[in-house]
Design brief:
Blueprint lengths: L10 H13 L14 H19 L5 H19 L1
């Protein structure tokens, strides 16, 4: 059995390894801080979340679905008696 590499890995080594891994995806790697401010990013996230909430507002949650199923099952049991 071969011994594991005993050389310590430093943060710079991990960054290089991560960059190599990301390059395998074929995507461009952002190597600067970007062009959008923190406040703009927060505002964008809030806007997108509001859009998402609007699209699902008519859908029942799992808890609501389970409650309805329980009511229906209870109704069936009562009607059998």
């Amino acid at each position: 059995m071969q011994a594991l590499n005993q050389n310590p890995m430093y943060m710079q080594d991990w960054l290089a390894r991560l960059d190599d891994f990301l390059k395998m995806t074929g995507k461009e790697i952002l190597n600067h801080s970007g062009t959008i401010s923190h406040n703009q990013a927060i505002e964008k996230a809030k806007t997108e979340y509001d859009k998402y909430k609007e699209t699902i507002k008519e859908e029942l949650s799992n808890v609501e679905k389970d409650f309805i199923n329980q009511l229906e099952n209870t109704e069936k049991k009562i009607n059998k008696k």
